[in-house]
Amino acid sequence: MRRVTRLATVAIASTALALSATACGKTSDSGSDSKEASAAIAYDIGGRGDQSFNDAAYAGLAKAEKDLDIKGNDQEPNEGESDADKVQRLTGLARAGNNPVIGVGFAYAPAIKKVAPKFPKTTFGIIDDTSVTGKNIANMVFNEEQGSYLAGVAAAKATKTNKVGFIGGVEVPLIKKFEAGFAQGVKDTNPKVQVRTQYLTQPPNFDGFSKPDLGKAAAQGQLDKGADVIYHAAGLAGSGSIEAAATDGKWAIGVDSDQYNQEGLAKYKAKILTSVTKDVSDAVYNLIKSVKDGKPQSGEVRYGLDKDGVGLSDSNPEYQKMTDLIAAVEKAKADIIAGKIKVKTAP
């Protein structure tokens, strides 16, 4: 099995990342006129430091800075911001000459729809969304349900109580893909295992991606009802579920990045069984490189299990000792890639 440690091995640049953004002026494209190649990412809810989704995006930007000799810019979201705020942010980044400009997360779709046509020479990337399209838009998407299926297999093999939990940050279609794959993987492996599902918030409240106390409380509730493996797809809020499971001596399954190797979760790493990984880092890097090479990506760019775009990490030494679990996961992976297993994208 391929061990996913990319995020942990990317050297994070120590230089402060500068952002030049303006809220007024001409809307003509200046991306191709920049004297210094630069790229920008605008973070999703939770921002940098979430030990998950946003940090993976930053790792791709940092790698591009190092390998491609480009200047990287990044910008944090504001709490409770509107689509208008995102439009202003992306407009400022494009006017400053950044190319590409990447919105980290589906929440940027409305803003990119408005901004991209005004800067036709700038490539705009959006992660986890295909609803907004254009000649200068790259839609970087993943088969999250496939990685989650493998997590379900692992959970079904690791549980001793035949009760496992899934915690979704916000009940939106994207997170339901995680739930669907996980539940299917569990049931296909052992129909006797119960899957308890809980979402932290409902849209338009997106606190379920940013507040660890919500994840902690939800996980504790599942633990109190007998769950001994808990998988989260909740961004920064999911760190709370990992804390709760680890403190209770139960297994946690991380998401997006190999959370076993995340510095901010080091205290709980012994109980992070595995993580469902999304190669957001490479997706960001590949888009930046395509622009630098003069052949910018556009349209749907999909990352699935067949190309290690999603997967399951095996960094925890305790995981590596579970030979039956590993064999089951490897077989499921091969069957998914061969088309023998069709993973659902909705519960």
Automatic annotation (TrEMBL):
SUPFAM superfamilies: Periplasmic binding protein-like I (SSF53822)
Compartments in which it is found: Cell membrane
Keywords recorded for this protein, A-Z: Cell membrane, Lipoprotein, Membrane, Signal
CDD domains xrefs: PBP1_PrnA-like (cd06354)
Endpoints of the signal sequence: 1-23
Similarity-based family: Belongs to the BMP lipoprotein family.
Protein name per its UniProtKB record: BMP family ABC transporter substrate-binding protein
Origin species: Streptomyces agglomeratus
